[in-house]
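Changelog entry: the Lin-28 homolog Aa record was regenerated in this release. Current contents:
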Amino acid sequence: MAPSFHGVGVCKWFNVRMGFGFLSMTKREGVPLDEPVDVFVHQSKLHMEGFRSLKEGEAVEFTYKKSSKGLESQRVTGPGGIYCVGSERRPKAGGSDGIGGGCVRVQRSLLQLSYTKGTTSTCLPIGAEVGNFCHVLV
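Regenerated C-alpha cells:
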C-alpha cells in the first residue's frame, strides 16, 4: 500500500457532470511549494453532505497518494477538516453540453444520435429504455 501525504491547496477545476477534477497543491506536509502541483480528485473522496462537487478556487486540505497515474487524493475537506463547499451548478440529465436543456437518445435500429431540445415528453432518466430507444449521455 502506498504511503499517504498531506496537502493544502485549491480546486483548479472540477467537472460536475463527470464527477472529477484537479486540485492545485500549494503546500505539501506543511511546506509551501515553489510551483503548484496537480492532484487528481474524484467526487467520492469529497467530505461533504448531499451532492459532491468542488467550486473552482475553493480552498481544500487533503490526503493523497502516488499512483502509476500520478497523484490521487484520498480524502478532501475544507480548511481545518470542515465540509467542502461545492459548486453552485448541479448537472441536469440529458443535454450534450453537460448543462441540461435537452435529451440525447440513440435509436438502436438506426444507430443514429438525435438531440431533442425542449422535448420533455421523450426524455427519460439516464439508462431507461422504451421500445427501441435508449437514453444515454454522450
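The beta strands are 4-15, 20-28, 31-42, 59-67, 70-77, 102-107, 112-117, 129-130, 133-135.
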